[in-house]
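User: I'm preparing a small set of examples for a lab meeting where we compare how different chains pack in three dimensions. I only have the primary sequence for this one, and I'd like the structure in token form so I can line it up with the others. Please keep the answer compact; I'll paste it straight into my notes.
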Amino acid sequence: MAESLAESFGRTIRALRKAGGISQRELAERAGIDFTYLSKIENDRMPPPSESTIRAMAQVLQTDADELIRLAGKVPSDLAEYLIGEPLAIKFLRSTQGDVMTSEDWSELLRSVKRRKEGAE
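Assistant: Understood. Below is the structure token output for the 121-residue chain.
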């Protein structure tokens, strides 16, 4: 998605919809929402919808759902669940923002991921 980070969720949805030649009514119907609700979203009179609605819209618009979820100021639920269950993953993400992880932290993170993978098999 080539939209600027300054773009609002609603304006991005409108631009993607128009670029795809899809009417508001068609997008709303295919995404399972009311077209007046979609109009309010596109005009930034409503906050972004739920993750499931965003995913449905992304599918119709043939665009990256995760990018739309991010633009909506949300975290994909599968990633949120992972972060809740894996505190060291939060440390890893913080380290990418300048917080420093020790080699011990990295080792524990890798062991934790390995245990999780082995438990899933």
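A couple of notes for your slides: The CA atoms of residues 43 and 104 lie 49 Å apart. The two ends are 35 Å apart (CA to CA).

User: Perfect, thanks.
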